[in-house]
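sry for the spam today, last one i promise. struct tokens for design, 349 residues
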């Protein structure tokens, strides 16, 4: 059960926080098309959450319901295809971003402090399909020396409307992620556009997760997604309400269910945002659990948009998050190489 208390300070923003809890529901509506004071109020609320749980649910985001239903239906049809048709779209061995039907792997193996080494990690009980804007014709603007395989074309199944649904939904997620990043900048006492030139050539993988029914009980310790933190700046997640869902690890060590709110997206910050914020904001560990045995016949779908800064963006402590007695706590990293290392650990990419 979710706790009934909210992160400290959220109670004063009743018009913004529509549901309290460790993963509160935040209405972005007052930040869209209104004045600077309204935007700053939403930004401060997001900042408070990012200092506590690092997870929140957004409504009032402006994403049309039809775009969500279209990509949900596209994924349902894709994952229902015969295995030989899906494996024919297996990501190319040389593609560092793994576009297409995903390889077996374990996200827990790429998380700092993971309980098991990659070679011993149990694979996640999920199938995936990955799309990235860098695989679209004429999009990639890679810096000199970057791996040209980053521009590997996206792979598409022979399903009417599939690619259109993906491209439309991805574009909407780009807009929403940029809006949240601008609110994050305000929350961190930065100019609103501070992150813009660091994400204008972002390299975001959008991943369709399919969690099949489990007629046979999983191996002990094997989950739909093992415990991990996300890697980039932020994640925007669509999840359905099927049993066996997302859980976050709170500061007391309890696993808490993330509720599925109709018409919403779950947002959490990733490791690179924590580096930028010098750990003022936290990248929270989470997992996707198996359904109870009485619901083991239920499938589940989710679509995370793993927002990742530009390949050559230098991620280092931002000016407002360090000072006397609070030096930078992380070494600077380049976004693209960081992501490639994480994918290699998780999937052998």
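last one done:
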């Amino acid at each position: 059960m979710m706790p009934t208390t909210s992160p400290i300070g959220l109670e004063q923003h009743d018009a913004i926080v529509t549901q309290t809890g460790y993963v509160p529901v935040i209405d972005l509506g007052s930040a869209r098309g209104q004045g600077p004071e309204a935007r700053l109020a939403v930004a401060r609320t997001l900042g408070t959450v990012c200092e506590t749980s690092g997870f929140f649910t957004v409504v009032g985001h402006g994403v049309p319901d039809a775009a969500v239903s279209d990509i949900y239906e596209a994924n349902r049809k894709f994952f229902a295809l015969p295995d030989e048709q899906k494996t024919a779209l297996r990501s190319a061995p040389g593609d560092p971003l793994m576009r297409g039907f995903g390889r077996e792997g374990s996200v827990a193996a790429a998380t700092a402090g993971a309980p098991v080494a990659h070679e011993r990690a149990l694979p996640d009980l999920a199938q995936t399909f990955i799309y990235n804007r860098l695989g679209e014709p004429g999009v990639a603007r890679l810096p000199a020396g970057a791996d040209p395989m980053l521009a590997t074309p996206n792979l598409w199944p022979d399903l009417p409307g599939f690619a259109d649904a993906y491209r439309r939904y991805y574009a909407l997620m780009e807009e929403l992620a940029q809006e949240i990043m601008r609110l994050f900048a305000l929350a961190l006492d930065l100019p609103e556009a501070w992150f813009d030139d660091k994400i204008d050539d972002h390299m975001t993988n959008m991943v369709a997760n399919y969690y099949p029914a489990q007629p046979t009980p999983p191996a002990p310790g094997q989950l739909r997604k093992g415990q991990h933190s996300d890697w980039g700046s932020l994640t925007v997640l669509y999840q359905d309400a099927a049993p066996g869902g997302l859980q976050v690890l709170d500061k007391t060590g309890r696993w808490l269910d993330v509720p599925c709110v109709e018409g919403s997206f779950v947002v959490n910050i990733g490791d690179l945002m924590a580096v930028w914020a010098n750990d003022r904001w936290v990248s929270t560990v989470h997992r996707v659990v198996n359904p109870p045995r009485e619901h083991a016949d239920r499938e589940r779908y989710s679509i995370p948009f793993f927002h990742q800064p530009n390949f050559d963006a230098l991620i280092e402590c931002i000016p407002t998050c360090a000072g006397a007695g609070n030096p930078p706590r992380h070494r600077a990293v380049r976004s693209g190489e960081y992501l490639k290392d994480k994918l290699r650990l998780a999937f052998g990419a």
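DSSP finds seven helices and 15 strands in the chain. ok im logging off now
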